[in-house]
Amino acid sequence: MNPALTIARKEYSLSLRSVTTYIIFGLFLLAVGIFFANTAFKVGRAEMRGTFSTIHLIFVVYAPAITMGSIAKEQASGTFELLSTLPIKLSHIVGGKILAGIMQLVTVLLFTLVYLGLLLHFGIGVDLGATFTGYLGLLLAGSAYISIGVLASSLTQNQVLAFIIGLAISAGFYLVKFFTVLVPPKLANILQFISFDHHLQNFFKGVIDTRDLIFFIAIILIAKYLAELKLQSRNMMQER
Predict the structure, then answer these.
(1) Which of 73, 154, 167, 223 is most buried, taking the most CB atoms under 10 A from its CB?
(2) What is the pLDDT of residues 55-80, one digit of tens each?
(3) What is the 3-state secondary structure (H, E, C) of the chain?
């Protein structure tokens, strides 16, 4: 079996034994449920687009929360040094950490299917195509946030600081959309391009654009590479 998958399975299994994980899951689903109830029952909209936007906003906090200890905790305890001495590539270690986070992400997204079930039962004219692409977009964006969180965790041994760094970077990709109206058109186009929300809108509308796919995949790979680079440089410093 691929070492990255082995690490991912182990990390995911350990996360499911943690009370903290279920607290974070519960808070996530509660926040989404409150917004869904307000949209579906009070406003009367038989669609998931608003709920997807809420989930995206929560991802900004959720991803750093579940990844802050992925590498920082092991660096602080010294277990990362032991792991790095094994015949496992850094790419496998970092990849496994990211995959474990994505597995948690998929788990919590599966729970939100309850809201979709309620919408299908009580609503009329639900666009299943847009719902499917919306979930796909959330999975891609969430995976990008997870990668950013793992990168932040590789930068420090302090889990709280890792959370703050991951939150700051993730919030930057989310909040950049609000600055597009304050800058010249050319700069606005650049800011719009790096906005996660901009790339998600096509998914929420039921459109799969290869440019959006490439954008999120690129963010995942870049964050993964930077985390590997940071850990590699740390190992080299220790060897001196």
Answers:
(1) 154
(2) 999 999 999 999 998 888 877 776 66
(3) CCHHHHHHHHHHHHHCCCHHHHHHHHHHHHHHHHHHHHHHHHHCCCCCHHHHHHHHHHHHHHHHHHHCCCCHHHHHHCHHHHHHHCCCCHHHHHHHHHHHHHHHHHHHHHHCHHHHHHHHHHCCCCCHHHHHHHHHHHHHHHHHHHHHHHHHHHCCCCHHHHHHHHHHHHHHHHHHHHHCCCCCHHHHHHHHHCCHHHHHHHHHCCCCCHHHHHHHHHHHHHHHHHHHHHHHHHHHHHHC
